[in-house]
Each structure stands twice: as structure tokens, then as C-alpha cells.
Design a protein that fits this description.
With 186 residues, this protein is mainly alpha-helical. It is 45% helix and 0% strand.
Length: 186
């Protein structure tokens, strides 16, 4: 996106907001009944971005019940926002900002949707082939790697692929004790 290989309409300030989700805590939350204080505080920073100036006003005064209904959806990222904010369906990056503010618990799915809609064959990056085993995927990754293109594992807590990597190394004629180097970056 930064190199303009993909045409995605966004600004540096929007990217910063998406990644850091800043807050402004000096404005009291008038919607405490359904909207968490954290969401209200981040919304106060969202309205500083161009194009979002009226968002808090719309949520608080013009259509609080409609925004509450959207907020309470099981998958709000798949639903159109109330009022003129439904236009964000055409600009998925900006819709992610609203999801980040109101329903940060849905960001993983929102990012998946963004990748699917934005990248050519984005589904291939989001949905893995469920018919392949971990060892098949590891072998495929190994075949794609080179001495200057390493394999990185981004792991969930408790997962440990070291044994599978060592077994693959042995099958490929690589001595895991002398020719395989693992580095924990955490």
C-alpha cells in the first residue's frame, strides 16, 4: 500500500490511528449504558481525522439506537453502518477504523475482510487449504525458501513446530544439529 502497488485510499494519519488507536480521555462518555469508555475515548481521537469529524455527534445525538444496534451485531464488520456512514462500504480501510473504535474485538475478522477485498487473490492469504497437513504446508514453505529467504513462524502461545522442522530437515538430508539454526525473536 505504501509503495502504491495496491490502490487503497488511506492517509498516513489513518494508518497511524489503525495501528496505535490513540485515546482522548477528557470528554465524558454520554453513552455509558452501552458504549465502553475506551470506545468513546478512541472515538474522540477518530473525529480528529478528516472525514470523521461528525462521527461522535452522529453516534451520540442523531442515531444512538441505530449505532447501538450495529454495535450489538454478532458480526458488525459485515453490516452497513447507520446514516451516511454506510458509504464506508466503498472504503474498507476507513470502515476498519470504525470497527477499531467501536468493536476492537472484531478487528481480526475486519482485517481478514480487508485483505480478501483488497489483495488480488486475497482469499489465498486468509483461508488456508484445510486439506493440507501442517507437514505438507511446512514442506511447501521450505520449497519456497532460499538461503536468503528464511521461514518465519508466527506462533500462538503453546505451539512449537521445532520437532516438525527438524523432521523435515532430516528428510531433506540436512543435519538439524549442525545445519539448522532456530532463533526465538520473542
Amino acid at each position: 500500500m505504501q509503495k502504491m502497488i495496491l490502490t487503497v485510499d488511506y492517509t498516513e494519519k489513518e494508518m497511524y490511528f489503525l495501528l496505535s488507536c490513540p485515546q482522548r480521555t477528557d470528554v465524558l462518555n454520554p453513552l455509558k449504558e452501552w458504549l465502553p469508555d475506551l470506545a468513546w475515548a478512541t472515538m474522540q481521537k477518530l473525529i480528529e481525522l478528516e472525514g470523521f469529524e461528525s462521527f461522535a455527534q452522529n453516534v451520540e445525538k442523531e442515531a444512538p439506537n441505530r449505532f447501538k444496534d450495529w454495535y450489538n451485531e454478532l458480526s458488525p464488520e459485515d453490516e452497513k453502518l447507520p446514516l451516511d456512514w454506510k458509504k464506508l462500504e466503498q472504503t474498507p480501510f476507513q470502515k476498519m477504523l470504525v470497527v477499531r473504535v467501536l468493536r476492537p474485538d472484531r478487528m481480526t475478522t475486519s482485517i481478514d475482510n480487508f485483505v480478501c477485498r483488497t489483495l488480488p487473490t486475497g482469499e489465498n492469504y486468509v483461508y488456508c487449504d484445510s486439506t493440507s497437513s501442517f507437514d505438507d504446508i511446512l514442506l511447501s514453505s521450505y520449497m519456497d525458501s532460499t538461503t536468503t529467504t528464511p521461514i518465519f513462524f508466527i506462533l500462538s502461545p503453546g505451539s512449537n513446530p521445532v520437532r516438525s522442522v527438524e523432521a523435515l530437515a532430516k528428510k531433506q538430508g540436512i543435519n538439524p544439529m549442525t545445519m539448522l539454526h532456530t532463533i526465538a525473536l520473542g
